Amino acid sequence: MEMLPLAFTSGWASGINAYATVLILGLLGRFAHIAQVPEGLQRVDVLIVMAVLTVIELVADKIPYVDSAWDTISTVIRPIAGATIGALMAGANGDVWTVALASVGGITALVSHLTKAGLRLAINTSPEPASNIAASLAGDVAVTGVATASVLAPIPVAIVVAILLVIGIVILIFAFRRVRRGWRSFRRWWERRRATTGSAAH
Predict the structure, then answer these.
(1) Distance from CA of residue 196 to its chain's centroid?
(2) Are 22 and 81 in contact (CB under 8 A)?
(3) Helix (H, G, I), strand (E, B), or coil: what is residue 54?
(4) Cα angle: 194, vertex 81, 13; to 5 degrees
(5) 0.85 exceeded by pTM
(6) How far apart are CA 185 and CA 162, in angstroms?
(7) Distance (Å, whole) CA 181 – CA 98
(8) For residue 81, with 0-12 CB atoms within 10 Å meaning exposed, 13-18 middle and 19 or more buried, which class applies?
(9) Residue 202 has pLDDT above 60, yes or no
(10) 104-120 pLDDT, tens per residue?
């Protein structure tokens, strides 16, 4: 049962930034010898790939509309990452416990991801980029703090994450109009990008 809070917190962090979550957990397992971290996350090749993808996401996440395009791509990746981490923590034996932890990680990551993506769409309606960068940096700090603290004090961190998840959903509901406006703006931006790319190709 001690793995359940860790699967929940890592799932939440994966919904914000899956690559950074895997990287931080892997580094903690490899160099701080945290027993709860699965060995598969500590492999050198995994750490290198995650480090490269983390840098890419850190940059993409701070550019208006590029962040939403990245979030769209990550709609599949982040929940899978959360589920995979949960399954690995359970030993990935295919038993009920593996399914339970994978479900907790995957579902939490999906809810966390959808909340983040929606809020970033709302923020993209703001004319200045400062709010976008501030939101991205806040996410970076939150992922780093949660992923690190979750292996040291999983239950208290899980409580904090549950509160953050509820607060995020409430804010998203109240910002629904701006989310819709942000989605329309993103679609227009995406269509312009496609048109520009198509013209350049010809």
Answers:
(1) 30
(2) yes
(3) helix
(4) 95
(5) yes
(6) 31
(7) 40
(8) buried
(9) no
(10) 999 999 999 999 999 99
**pLDDT (tens digit per residue) in 128-175:** 667 889 999 999 999 999 999 999 899 999 999 999 999 999 999 999
Mean pLDDT over all residues of the chain?
91
Beta-carbon count within 10 A of 24 CB: 25
Tokens representing 89? 């923590």
pLDDT for position 168:
94
42: three-class secondary structure by DSSP = helix
Rounded Cα distance, 131 and 62, in Å: 10
What pLDDT sits at residue 73?
A: 92
CA-CA distances (angstroms) from residue 142 to 14, 135, 136, 181?
11, 10, 10, 26
Pure H helices in the chain: 3-31, 44-60, 66-89, 96-123, 130-150, 154-174, 176-201
User: Which residues, including other chains, have CB under 8 Å from residue 123's CB and lie 6 or more apart?
Assistant: 131, 132, 135, 182
Domain boundaries, the chain: 3-201
Q: What is the C-alpha separation between 195 and 176, in angstroms, rounded?
A: 29
Q: DSSP per residue over 63-81, as a string?
A: STTHHHHHHHHHHHHHHHH
Q: pLDDT over 90 for what percent of the chain?
A: 75
Lookup: tokens for 131: 């709010």
